[in-house]
Design a protein that fits this description.
Blueprint: E1 19-20, E2 25-27, E3 30-38, E4 43-48, E5 51-53, H1 57-87, H2 93-102, E6 111-115, H3 121-128, E7 135-140, H4 143-152, E8 160-164, E9 177-183, H5 192-201, E10 203-214, H6 224-232, E11 249-257, E12 262-269, H7 290-295, H8 303-316, H9 320-340
Parallel strand pairs: 5-8, 6-7, 6-9, 7-8, 9-10
Antiparallel strand pairs: 1-3, 2-3, 3-4, 4-5, 10-12, 11-12
Helix pairs in contact: 1-4
Bound molecules: S-adenosylmethionine (SAM).
Length: 341
């Protein structure tokens, strides 16, 4: 961890700022060994070989222990075997990874977070697209997977930082990164809605989020092709997480790539819910605005009254909104005035 990057980290439990405890081992501005302290909750996170470990016993219970154990076994052979994941669908690994990274729309000076970065096959492509003004943060729950990533990126010339943490509580302040990638990670999150929320939180408005996971789409579920994939790994049948997409997502695209059995979501981060121009007057018989139609609803009337109202409204030449608004307001004001006299 670079000392001057400390301000961009936050405690994954409390969200508070972190302090660097005294006497860390610092080489060329980087903390090699040290301790980060979350003062209010008296929690310590250890930095070893330049990598911070943010995993807490609570997260271990919530699923981190399983993922860490599973990937510590896989880590040794991951790079040897990962090409199979692409060849199974007659795809070229480098081509797929580059196409996904294209969606990040990177500029050389961008600060990029890769979540579930693993051994770094995407990390090295991202690094090749950045310059010294930018930076790449590699986050993974498994220190074993990340150790291969560190070795792979050892000689890159851009700033890199390695963080052991869960995607479901990302230890960075809000709106820090320009872009975020997560390939083949979300299917392992212990709390998927929270992980997707966290990924949007740490990216600044205007920045891109791209994530991908295995998934047999609905239209291939009944094919032999789809059934063979699901039989091999039930994760292929997990739902597409559309309902967990954060409200900040704008211009979201989802496509299926890699044999049509891996979805890729990409979206631009916005601020809060989308904002509409909902006071815009809508011409025509009904009239009113999106807001009056939503906020101005009163009560239903009998169907005979409704028919009469439609007949009368047509004769006035006004929109239903204008006619109703005028007569109800007039009548209401008359009653209020009389009672308050
Ligand atoms: C299939 S590997 C993908 C690695 C890499 N993205 C790639 O494309 O080769 C899944 C990775 O997700 C990581 N992972 C699993 N659960 C995680 C979590 N909750 N937070 C962050 N990373 C997680 C694993 O440790 C593993 O490195």
């Amino acid at each position: 961890m670079r000392v001057d990057n400390l301000i961009h980290y936050r405690c994954p439990i409390s969200g508070d700022k972190l302090e660097l405890e005294q006497s860390p081992a610092i080489v060329a501005g980087k903390v090699i060994e040290g301790v980060l302290l979350s003062k209010n909750i008296e929690k310590k996170y250890f930095i070893k070989d330049g990598c911070i470990d943010f995993i807490t016993p609570e997260q271990e219970i919530k699923g981190a222990a399983f993922a860490r154990k599973y990937y510590s076994v896989i880590a040794k052979t991951y790079d040897e075997n990962v090409h199979i994941t692409f060849e199974l669908y007659n795809e070229n690994e480098s081509n797929i990874r580059n196409r996904m990274i294209d969606l990040l729309e990177l500029k050389p000076n961008y600060k990029v977070l890769e979540v579930s970065a693993g051994t770094g096959k995407d990390s090295e492509i991202i690094a090749s697209r950045l310059n010294k003004e930018g930076g790449l943060w590699l986050l993974d729950i498994s220190p074993d997977m990340l150790s291969y990533n560190m070795a792979r990126l050892e000689n890159v010339e851009i700033p890199t930082e390695f963080v052991v943490a869960s995607a479901c509580s990302i230890p960075f302040v809000d709106n820090y990164f320009d872009a975020l990638l997560c390939f083949a990670g979300v299917g392992h999150f212990s709390d998927l809605p929270m992980g997707l929320k966290e990924m949007a939180r740490v990216v600044k408005p205007g920045g891109k989020v791209v994530f991908s996971e295995k998934n047999v789409p609905e239209w291939l579920r009944d094919t032999e092709y789809g059934k063979i994939c699901i039989n091999n790994n039930p994760m292929f049948a997990d739902p597409v997480p559309l309902k967990h997409i954060p409200v900040e997502a704008r211009n979201l695209c989802v496509r299926w790539i890699m044999g049509n059995v891996h979805y890729v979501f990409d979206y631009t981060v916005g601020v809060g819910e989308p904002k509409g121009n909902f006071d815009l007057e809508i011409p025509g018989e009904r009239g009113g605005t999106f807001n009056t139609r939503y906020f101005g609803k009163l009560e239903g009337v009998t169907s005979e009254t409704k028919q009469k109202a439609i007949e009368a409204q047509k004769l006035t030449g006004k929109s239903m909104h204008k006619w109703l608004d005028e007569i109800i307001r007039k009548e209401a004001e008359k009653i209020i005035k009389k009672v308050n006299k």
